[in-house]
Amino acid sequence: MTGTLYGIGLGPGDPELLTLKAHRILQTVPVIAYPAPDGAPSLARSIAAPHLPGGQVELPIGLCMAVERAPGQGGYDAAAPEIAAHLQAGRDVAVLCEGDPFFYGSFLHLFARLGADFATEIVPGVSSVMAAAACARRPLVVRNDRFAVLPATLPDEALRAGIEAAESVAILKLGRHFARVKRLIAEMGLTNGALYAERVTQAGEQVRPLAETGDTAPYFALILLYKGREPAILGHDR
Amino acid sequence: MTGTLYGIGLGPGDPELLTLKAHRILQTVPVIAYPAPDGAPSLARSIAAPHLPGGQVELPIGLCMAVERAPGQGGYDAAAPEIAAHLQAGRDVAVLCEGDPFFYGSFLHLFARLGADFATEIVPGVSSVMAAAACARRPLVVRNDRFAVLPATLPDEALRAGIEAAESVAILKLGRHFARVKRLIAEMGLTNGALYAERVTQAGEQVRPLAETGDTAPYFALILLYKGREPAILGHDR
């Protein structure tokens, strides 16, 4: 009997926003793996830490986060056979994933390498998009609203088209694209009512109007756009 | 001291997909409220049931789910002052919400009526969109993908524009719009690779190719569109 590969969604950062299912698996799984960028502390590992009983085998996945075409692929190439060896020996392996494993998650790199050969189970998690709206106390979408999630890494034209085709929008992966995206939002007349969120549900959480931000933002920050919708809720169609 | 109004995201249906935070609050809160459509069993109540210690005051919110302009508003009009009375007496009230409270959630109707007058905390939950992708073992979005969530209640033109402006799409609230939306997807040449999901993570879960469905679907079913993306993951841009 080979082991099961788990992709565990850990949620947005607060260890209490793990699901009961993720918690149960972390309490019993003999091997955990997690991204450990550039030797820096692993955010995924730190979210899971209060839930680990100790004594597990740990496989940090070394990632080079420098700006390049396909960062970190070497890390996954090295980790995949290590994980496969544990699975082949009958040991379950839990891969720790910030947010949700299938929503821009780095788990995809391991799923692509191992998903065809081993039993795999995905445990969905709370996305930072939903957590940001909760922290901001601003409902994301209601009634017939269309919702779009757009990576800031896209060129202006693709971002503009995506923003135009939705009532509410989350823009992720800001990092070095922040100033450009902010300018685009201003050109579209949508700065009013837009929110900036960073480290939601974690220490150092920041949620504030986009108009009150500077020109830099970390990669794991996001913008929520509300296109002039009134906060009052009057009903919903079926 | 007035009480706190909690909007509790319960996740997609499996009681084990509650967060630890939702579980803690349900274990201690003196009053719970939940939608109870047309006297039918409340799905939200049934997801929370294994986590309730018993002895709480329960406020079912009667909703008329018939097709009308603003269904159920009378239920919220009646429930809001009842909830307000508990809050004013210093008792916390947890409103049980399927999925995430701010993502097309009916909690919005209570938030609009009470959010300005009482301390409110939103506990985000796992969305059925992420859960459907997990059950289907099909990653939702990777790298620079744009993601759109569209209610099936929209007219064809708005749906088409939303689908065109994204790489992956979730279409919610199918119900009586299912046959029309299926036809639109076929016209756009996107039936291949599209998935249908119903009751994800619940008893009776169904996930199958859209091509293998009939012409009816319940309201709480969804379609996932993958616009020709290859499943292999090659890297991600920063």
From TrEMBL, chains A, B:
Pathway: Cofactor biosynthesis; adenosylcobalamin biosynthesis
Record key words, sorted: Cobalamin biosynthesis, Methyltransferase, S-adenosyl-L-methionine, Transferase
One of the Pfam families matching this protein, by short name: TP_methylase
Gene Ontology biological-process annotations: cobalamin biosynthetic process; methylation
Domain Tetrapyrrole methylase: 4-208
GO function terms (MF aspect): precorrin-2 C20-methyltransferase activity
Similarity field: Belongs to the precorrin methyltransferase family.
NCBIfam families the record matches: cobI_cbiL
Protein name in UniProt: Precorrin-2 C20-methyltransferase
Organism: Aureimonas ureilytica
